[in-house]
Inverse folding.
């Protein structure tokens, strides 16, 4: 029977440090974690479940990749993140839709993977 040493205590990482781990430049990122690249299955599943889309209006957007969305049906607000700051396409007042299950944001003809 071997003796096991306890693991060292680690500090949790949050925010941009955690989200950007592994991708130095957004346009070169190959990660399919939430808020990074949109995985083909994520897109397909969000398309196959149209009842889970929530229509919203962009109420805030910042350069760190966060956007605040107000649901049109009065369902409150959501704050979502995308590592490329939505490629600079989101503006205040823009109508968007966010998939409540699969983490996809639809803005016009573009689709983004988002982390809440």
């Amino acid at each position: 029977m071997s003796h096991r040493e306890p693991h060292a205590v680690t500090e949790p990482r949050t925010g941009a440090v955690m989200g950007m781990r592994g991708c130095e430049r957004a346009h070169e990122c190959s990660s399919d974690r939430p808020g990074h690249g949109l995985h083909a299955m994520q897109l397909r599943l969000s398309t196959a479940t149209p009842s889970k889309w929530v229509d919203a209006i962009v109420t805030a957007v910042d350069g760190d990749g966060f956007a605040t969305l107000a649901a049109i049906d009065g369902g409150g607000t959501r704050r979502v993140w995308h590592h490329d700051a939505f490629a600079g396409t989101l503006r205040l007042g823009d109508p968007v839709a966010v998939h409540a299950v699969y983490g996809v944001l639809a803005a016009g003809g573009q689709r983004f993977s988002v982390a809440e």
Notes: The radius of gyration is 17 Å. Confidence is low (pLDDT under 50) at residues 12-20. The first strand starts at residue 53 and ends at 61. Helices lie at 16-19, 40-48.
